[in-house]
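quick one: adenosine-5'-triphosphate bound model?
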Amino acid sequence: MGEDYILRTVMLTKLYNRVTAVDGVSINIRRGDIYGLIGRNGAGKTTLIRMILGVAKPTKGKVELFGGKDLGAARKKIGSIIERPSLYPTMTVEQNLEVHRILLGIENEKIVGELLEKVALDRARRKKASDLSLGMKQRLALAMTLIASPEFLVLDEPTNGLDPSGIKEVRDLVKDLNQNSNVTIFISSHLLGELSKIASRYGIVEKGKLIEEFSSAELDERAKQSLLVKVDNIKRATEIIEKDLGTKNYKVRDDNIIELFENGEKPGEVNRILSNNGIVVESICKSQVDLEAYFLKITGTKRDI
Ligand code: ATP
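yep, here:
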């Protein structure tokens, strides 16, 4: 309760005719989090975000922002990008920001220059918005939303359509805002590997439901569970694994590496047992179960998302 939570939703639900777009989602975001919301297209991410921002009305459930119930006041402290940024195409980068500053009644004129630097568009300040690359447009949109110094930034698929360098730029910016300007961030994506580089907590949505929440530390913990073992004699090694380690929880991969899903925290012991039985262990290492693999495991599907 209180100020520790920037956002809490309680059983938030949205029905569109017969489609339940969001189904009883209770999500908690604490101050300082970079919260990554993961889900396939159509899982309900945008609808959830629209309800949080007040653009869509919940069918059921409630939203609490900054520990209070005055959503109107709280939403003034939120910056967001939920659709393609709306920029004035014939104006320059700098003019777009300047107009936005005046419209918002922000008196600090220096903020435009500061933000141009922050989003690395200072050298493009005189370019027309219509001439910008998608990545630059996205950074300009971020600068626009930062003009009001938001405490909470909500970004729906901010890297959609960007090339790898554009993705990295947005990622670096998000990290910088979080670490150096104390901005709490809620970011949705279907790019799991991408989120795993910045998020401190994750929520997975599937068919409108929040099916799991975990921290990056918990993800690391789970990721430590498998060991990749390369040996000279696979058949004999698997017999020893079954007999002496007492587990059938392994598989022999196509590249002739044994993947051991238990004892991940004990590579030394696995090595000793195999070696004592005359097996040559050529290599043994912990495998990184990344976010994508983890997601596929818990949603039980190999379908691409
Ligand atoms: P995407 O990444 O494609 O935006 P998403 O996870 O954001 O996916 P939503 O856009 O929230 O998913 O959609 C969730 C479900 O609700 C989908 O089945 C979608 O067709 C439906 N839906 C969303 N908006 C509306 C609407 N305005 N009217 C009717 N159905 C809608």
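The chain has eleven helices and 14 strands.
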